[in-house]
Amino acid sequence: MAMLDATVGHMPGMVETAPAPGPLLSVRDVGKRYGARIGCADVSFDLWPGEVLGIVGESGSGKSTLLGCLSGQLVPDTGEVVFDSRDRGPVDTLRMSERERRHLGRTDWAFVHQNPRDGLRLGVSAGGNVGERLMANGARHYGNIRATAQDWLARVEIDPGRIDDRPRQFSGGMQQRLQIARNLVSGPRLAFMDEPTGGLDVSVQARLLDLLRGLVRDICLSVVLVTHDLAVVRLLADRLMVMKGGHVIESGLTDQVLDDPQHAYTQLLVSSVLQV
Amino acid sequence: MSDYNFAYLDEDTKRMIRRAILKGIAVPGYQVPFASREMPMPYGWGTGGVQITAATLVPQDVLKVIDQGADDTTNAVSIRKFFQKTAGVEVTERTTEATVIQTRHRIPETPLTGDQILVYQVPIPEPMRFLEPRETETRRIHALADYGLMQVRLYEDIARHGEIATSYAYPVEVAGRYVMDPSPIPKFDNPKLDDCPAIQLFGAGREQRIYALPPHTGVRSLDFDDHPFTASKADHACAICGSGTSYLDEVITDDDGGRMFVCSDTDYCARRAEGVQ
């Protein structure tokens, strides 16, 4: 059963960065079917402020369906997703209006796509990409928007002198970092990441992971991280859920799951990793 | 004349268009879909405006047609002839005498009055077309008034040119709600949209959209706090009538660098020239 003990997530190291009394995101019995086939079923967990939850599994195991359901891009058939919003306290994101969900999507939430082309506006300069959220949230001072964009480009290790370049002129790794800056500029508290390191070579991956680790710590960001790369979750995730056939088959602390896998499939997954 | 129904379109079509116009007036700035008809002229020549004019005209109307401010260019002449032939209405070149004015790319310099209707020809009604290609998404943006994207367009302008370089089809916010493309009028004309006593109707034939500004609607041009909107024009006076306040066309007079600036509104210019002489 996927229900996790709340005390497991609430680790001692997280206490000082977690002023909220309850979990940031509380997921109960989320399920989605595509006709007769199962997308995901009976998924429940709590995500605490500042915590990184990894979701791993093979292709077709329901990871992306689950992420879509959590982030409001898909409508699940069952269950509830309660988010502890800044202004209104815990709200069920599945039952809120689209206007509220979009507002949440550009303030408290971030979504990092696997392919940066899906998350960026390729015809708009890097500065415009980073500034879009600010302008959508009502910023109308060009100088301030530009200064914030420059600051964020520097934080994701992009030369601020390239603020007027288009994403097309950036390398894959830079595009991914730009996408992260564009998402984090509004100071969100929860980020959904769908294979953020997919398609990048290993050295670029390592830099990106390093950057993400720093950002997560600095701004007390909670992350739901979907990946098939066990090395990524080992580095980033505090907790891990393993999915297969739409169900969560094993969950727990990352090191615990990876070092002592209980379920046969998890054992297979862990043993499949190539050792260099 | 008797070969055509009044103003070319059949009565059912005119009713359908009038319904769209009324809906547009009820929701200022909202793009109302309508079943645009084939007109005896190519798309891009004002089929949307012509259909609105046809649905608006009554036999007592006096029609004026302007194209880039001028009454005597191809587009204006052929549309004027079209309605002379199919509706038999009186036509004029004088802004003050007209009750219906169909226009392409300009608002007359002479202030409009409450008993006039100004019909615009619109090529692309969606102000976010080149930022967001999905029509489903732009409609959602309008529905939720989620207009951050529009501001990104202006941001890009400043980032690239140092100022808001959009000089025509400058996006406006209507009555504090919908963001609207005012058709390709120069931004010099944008302030005339605001609080105008005349009814302003916008027709896009190919894109099948009608939208409207009822009389005395508040229209604000989008801008940034530190880069406010400015209505710009060529820094000259008209070479014919001497007006320093009207919108000017630049006319190349020879291949030796010779040029002159004249009013784009020919009626306004001619009336002033008469008065001066």
Automatic annotation (TrEMBL), chain A:
One of its GO terms (molecular function) is ATP hydrolysis activity. PANTHER family: PHOSPHONATES UTILIZATION ATP-BINDING PROTEIN PHNK-RELATED (PTHR42764:SF1). PROSITE patterns: ABC_TRANSPORTER_1, ABC_TRANSPORTER_2. GO terms for biological process: organic phosphonate catabolic process. It comes from Paracoccus halophilus. This is Putative phosphonate transport system ATP-binding protein. InterPro entries: AAA+_ATPase, ABC_transporter-like_ATP-bd, ABC_transporter-like_CS, P-loop_NTPase, PhnK. The keyword Mitochondrion does not apply. Residues 25-270 form the ABC transporter domain. CDD domains: ABC_NikE_OppD_transporters (cd03257). SUPFAM superfamilies: P-loop containing nucleoside triphosphate hydrolases. Pfam families: ABC_tran.
From TrEMBL, chain B:
GO terms for biological process: organic phosphonate catabolic process. It is an enzyme of class 4 (lyase). InterPro entries: PhnJ (IPR010306). Its EC number is 4.7.1.1. GO terms for molecular function: 4 iron, 4 sulfur cluster binding; alpha-D-ribose 1-methylphosphonate 5-phosphate C-P-lyase activity; metal ion binding. Keywords: 4Fe-4S, Iron, Iron-sulfur, Lyase, Metal-binding, S-adenosyl-L-methionine. This is Alpha-D-ribose 1-methylphosphonate 5-phosphate C-P lyase. Coiled coil: none annotated. It catalyses: alpha-D-ribose 1-methylphosphonate 5-phosphate + AH2 + S-adenosyl-L-methionine = alpha-D-ribose 1,2-cyclic phosphate 5-phosphate + methane + 5'-deoxyadenosine + L-methionine + A + H(+). Catalyzes the breakage of the C-P bond in alpha-D-ribose 1-methylphosphonate 5-phosphate (PRPn) forming alpha-D-ribose. It comes from Paracoccus halophilus. Belongs to the PhnJ family. It comes from the Bacteria. It holds the Pfam family PhnJ.
